[in-house]
Amino acid sequence: MKSPVLSGLVVQLGVSLLCCLTLFWWSYEQAYSLGLGALIFIVPNTYFTLYAFRYRGARSSQWIAKSFNWGESGKFALVAVGFALVFRFVDTLNVQLLFAGFCGMVVLQWWIANYLQQRWLDQIQP
Questions:
Q1: CA-based, 20 to 30 A from 74: which of 52, 82, 108, 125?
Q2: How large is the angle between the packed helices 28-52 and 61-89, nearest 10 degrees?
Q3: 40 exposed, middle or buried (CB, 10 Å; 0-12, 13-18, 19+)?
Q4: Measuring CA to CA, which residue among 67, 73, 74 is closest to residue 53?
């Protein structure tokens, strides 16, 4: 894996897929509602990750800052478009599970970021 951030995205995809398969036993509508909420978070976050971490090194600091700004702007726009598309084109939708999927991925991202930070700190401390 190129970046630990990308491995976090793979974990998010795996967890959301597992939750959707579990919900699929109860209701197809609930499963895809949760999955769409998770995808609305994961796809823009993947865009941000790929866009923001294109440059490395101190000499590229201005490009890194610009990439973070553009990546965050694109991520916000993709989230807004994702919700707009879901509310426009999906007829039967469990809105609570849609937002539960989105918010669950936000919380999972915080946990993954904390885990990766602790792991990184353990590596650099003697």
A1: 108
A2: 160
A3: buried
A4: 67
Q: What is the pLDDT, as a whole number, of residue 126?
A: 66
Tell me the whole-structure pTM to 2 decimals: 0.84
User: Which tens digit of pLDDT belongs to each residue from 59-103?
Assistant: 888 888 899 999 999 999 999 999 999 999 999 999 999 999 999
Give the Cα separation of 14 and 19 in Å (integer). Answer: 9
Candidates 79, 113, 94; CA nearest to 20 is 94
Residue with tokens 């600091």: 61
Q: What is the rounded distance in angstroms from the CA atom of residue 60 to the CA atom of residue 42?
A: 27
* Predicted pLDDT of residue 116: 84
